[in-house]
Q: What sequence folds into this?
């Protein structure tokens, strides 16, 4: 398409740009929800019950999804919302104040950019971006337009995780030298399907957006788009970006690592999936490291303390004869159900180690594995708290109040992209400022993508 067509695509949303609205104490923030699949329906249900929000618009390229979401909204609130197929029209609606994006990954950046340019604040599902280039543009546009952009990493608003992180940052287990993330989420084979006619009511061209034009295929639609490189980032960029972000959080949210390497493959299944179901990635921060593992097949968990160590290491200095046993010796540790991690994190420090998942947090110290801290969740899903944090920042106009603002969430997403780039090129990445990979054309190409016009970031 021509440059003029591309320009009109952006103007379709940007024409609505207006001065920032100031909300009164009792005013609700009118939300448009974009992408009405499983996660988008979750957004709908949460915003429906938050006192500071009102669902004003529903947007999806699938008519059936819009109709189902409308019925859910009526059930929840006895009110209807406007319906849109094209997100640009939703963003141009003056009755919409902010948008909540739950599209496939390859639309996250463009949807966020268009919304910001239309004067809307944005809550965007994770990962923040489909590739590293997109995240950089998202940050630039958020700053230029003075929009609030929160990414849906709800663990950053989870009280027990905040408390645990504060304790570790204050030296609970000494200096953390290794953060490990696990994504052992069981995934079945997606099977195989031939291309087929596009279902009635589905705008397949708009679904593809920035991705290459191809015939409709049911395996590339609905949730399974995660497992194709054109639209998704595999499980490291799906579930795994949560745990990658928690690894970074534990280390104090560092910038890019010095190097990254990933190896793995797609094992056990013969199907249409392109992304790996087994992946092991490591990131070197110079004296500290992050290790991340995806395992979608049959497996067990990790994080059970060794309860019956025979004693100190062989080279340790022995206590004098008759000395009192140290606190936390075998058998003296408080009772507690172990946090066995399949999806979660482990942190290793110079004085102990810790384990964290949605089931809780436990920290252990010394050779005896003395349990020194334990926290359990006070509530279930904390997405609502994360959205409340977003709505509060919309009112205050202070992006620094956001618990996972786009500039930080971009770095967590980039960790996933680095692993995928290493996996796809088959070699270790040495990362230079930019970021870029000196003398590595294949890796540099994967920092961005070839965009289908006019859907260009």
A:
């Amino acid at each position: 398409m021509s440059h003029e067509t591309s320009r009109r695509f952006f103007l379709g949303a940007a024409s609505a740009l207006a001065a920032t609205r100031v909300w009164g104490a009792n005013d609700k923030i009118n939300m448009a929800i974009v992408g009405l699949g499983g996660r988008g329906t979750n957004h709908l249900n949460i915003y429906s019950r938050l006192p500071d929000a009102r669902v004003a618009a529903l947007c999806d390229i699938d008519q059936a999804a819009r109709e189902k979401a409308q019925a859910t909204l009526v059930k929840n609130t006895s009110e209807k919302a406007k319906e849109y197929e094209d997100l640009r029209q939703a963003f141009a609606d003056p009755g919409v104040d902010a948008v909540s994006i739950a599209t496939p990954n390859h639309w996250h950046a463009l949807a966020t950019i268009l919304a910001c340019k239309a004067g809307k604040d944005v809550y965007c599902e994770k990962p923040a971006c489909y590739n590293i280039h997109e995240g950089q543009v998202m940050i630039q546009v958020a700053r230029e337009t003075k929009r609030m952009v929160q990414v849906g990493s709800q663990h950053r608003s989870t009280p027990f995780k905040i408390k645990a992180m504060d304790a570790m940052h204050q030296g609970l287990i000494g200096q953390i030298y290794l953060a490990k993330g696990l994504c052992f989420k069981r995934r079945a084979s997606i099977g195989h399907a031939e291309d087929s006619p596009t279902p009635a009511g589905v705008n397949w061209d708009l679904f593809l957006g920035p991705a290459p034009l191809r015939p409709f295929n049911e395996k590339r639609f609905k949730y399974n788009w995660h497992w194709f490189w054109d639209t998704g980032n595999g499980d490291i960029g799906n579930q795994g970006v949560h745990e990658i972000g928690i690894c970074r959080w534990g280390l104090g949210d560092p910038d890019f690592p010095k190097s990254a390497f990933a190896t793995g493959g797609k094992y056990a299944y013969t199907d249409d999936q392109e992304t790996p179901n087994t992946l092991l990635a490591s990131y070197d921060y110079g004296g500290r490291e992050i290790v991340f593992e995806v395992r979608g097949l049959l497996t067990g968990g990790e994080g059970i303390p060794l309860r019956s160590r025979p004693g100190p290491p062989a080279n340790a200095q022995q206590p004098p004869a008759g000395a009192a046993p140290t606190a936390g010796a075998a058998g003296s540790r408080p009772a507690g159900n172990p946090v066995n991690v399949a999806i979660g994190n482990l942190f290793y420090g110079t004085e102990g180690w810790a384990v964290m998942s949605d089931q809780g947090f436990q920290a252990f110290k010394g050779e005896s594995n003395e349990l020194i801290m334990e926290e359990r969740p006070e509530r279930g899903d904390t997405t609502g708290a994360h959205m409340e944090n977003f709505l509060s920042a919309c009112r205050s106009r202070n992006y620094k109040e956001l618990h996972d603002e786009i500039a930080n969430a971009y770095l967590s997403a980039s960790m996933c992209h680095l692993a995928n780039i290493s996996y796809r090129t088959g070699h270790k990445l040495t990362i230079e400022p930019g970021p870029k990979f000196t003398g590595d054309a294949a890796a540099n190409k994967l920092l961005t993508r070839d965009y289908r016009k006019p859907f260009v970031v």
In short: The longest helix spans residues 406-425. The chain has two domains: 3-154+382-403+436-445, 157-309+326-375. The CA atoms of residues 185 and 296 lie 5 Å apart.
